[in-house]
Amino acid sequence: MENAEVGLIGLAVMGANLARNISNNGFKTVVYNRTTEKMTQYIEEFGNENLIGKESLEDFVQSIARPRKIIILVKAGDAVDAVINQLIPLVEKGDMIIDCGNTNYRDTIRRTNDLNEKGIHFIGCGVSGGEEGALNGPSIMPGGSPESWEEMKEMWKAIAADDFLGGPCTAHIGEGGAGHYVKMVHNGIEYAVMQMIAEAYDMLKKMYGQTPDEIAKVFKRFNEGRLNSFLFEIAVPVLLKKDGSAHIIDVILDKAGQKGTGKWTAIEALDRGIGLSSISESVFARVNSSYKEDRVHLARSFPKPELQSETTLEEFIQLLEQSLYAGMLSCYAQGFELIKLASTEEGWKVNLSEVSRIWQGGCIIRAEVLQFLTDTYKASGKESPKLLELKEIQKAINGSLPAWRDIICLSVQAGIPTPALTSGLQYIDASTTERLPANMIQGLRDYFGAHTYERTDKEGSFHTDWSE
Ligand SMILES: NC(=O)c1ccc[n+]([C@@H]2O[C@H](COP(=O)([O-])OP(=O)(O)OC[C@H]3O[C@@H](n4cnc5c(N)ncnc54)[C@H](OP(=O)(O)O)[C@@H]3O)[C@@H](O)[C@H]2O)c1
Fold first, then answer.
1. Predicted TM-score of the model (pTM)
2. Is the CB of residue 83 below 6 angstroms from any atom belonging to ligand 1?
3. Which member of 1, 90, 164, 240 lies 3.0 to 4.6 Å from 61 by CB, making a disulfide possible if both were Cys?
């Protein structure tokens, strides 16, 4: 096959599955991998008239019709630069290089600018859904120029998952690093939702002595209601699966890693100066989990209280469901505010209604609540309003607040850490409190450092000699 419609470099799980998805949808695809053996094995197994491989990068590039569309799915970081540098002498003006990996958006902006100077389009494109999504339909978040979106949209739409109304889970996110930014925040929300599910599991286990089978039943029930989501769906088999007579969940070491996109999202919030407590706390929760030996040692010196609650298990489950629902809304409110701020500062014009729509299918955080968010955004008549300002969101969160407060009180009394759920509530309370105690902070700062303060009763900047 010559004149392939698209080329793909990198045949580890993501690339291998995405190339099959693209070619299965009728697009003639050529693949290349640094280690040739991997490519030949892959083509032996999956090759067909729409899917061929090339051993040399030169032949690979030559076999793609112009303007060329070349997807890179190699290890994020230096490998992406290495591949781009090898491609530069081989491609021509107007060609498109698309990085579908989990790249830091700042690298994407740098690469976009470098390649723009050479007349080459560079597209940073978030892809979510893991290997299964890559094969059967992921959520696709392309950044890059509007021209490149026009060139690519037919293919993105064909290979993407469906939203709840059957539309494709893809849209042009915005120029430059917008696609990778939105994917990064998606992963941050994923961290927070997973942490909330873990906290719910922990409370049911430690406060009510529930077994994995019993907790699976509760989560199955949650998944049949408004918490319906991929993460609750997979939580059930994760709880039920056995290795011999033991539940695997009971023997998994309680340490979780946190190197990538969740950490970047938290750092972004700090750099841009915006609250993102649930996502940041979820990263810290994983950090804390990694100090297993210290925790085991210190647990002996800090015994946890026996829970003295009159709340029945059934009452608790109902409170938990409401808390998780409001907690998820809080995660989205935080993540969307970060995207909105970055979009304004970077000039991306990201449409949050579209973001919530394209996360409805294919991706790890796909959930029924995203349909509610999309509908609410649409009904507001505004493209990207603040979620907490929308009446329907206010109603949903306010309806769950009493239950949420009860759950947090119970977990605190039992000494069970619930950082994501607690900080989600704190985020709502802090964002909706008319007068916070920052006046006290300002007074202290002015006392010890003459930092000055503003007043509520007159304009200007003031300093007081407090010791007089
Ligand atoms: N795995 C997931 O579920 C998932 C989900 C969403 C996004 N992602 C992102 O998708 C991207 C690909 O992920 P992955 O798990 O499929 O693969 P990966 O393990 O991150 O990377 C392996 C691939 O990169 C190639 N590679 C590494 N260094 C290279 C270099 N210097 N030059 C050329 N090729 C090089 C490897 O080629 P060789 O075979 O020659 O070693 C192999 O094809 C990553 O950015 C990842 O973060 C992954």
1. 0.96
2. yes
3. 90
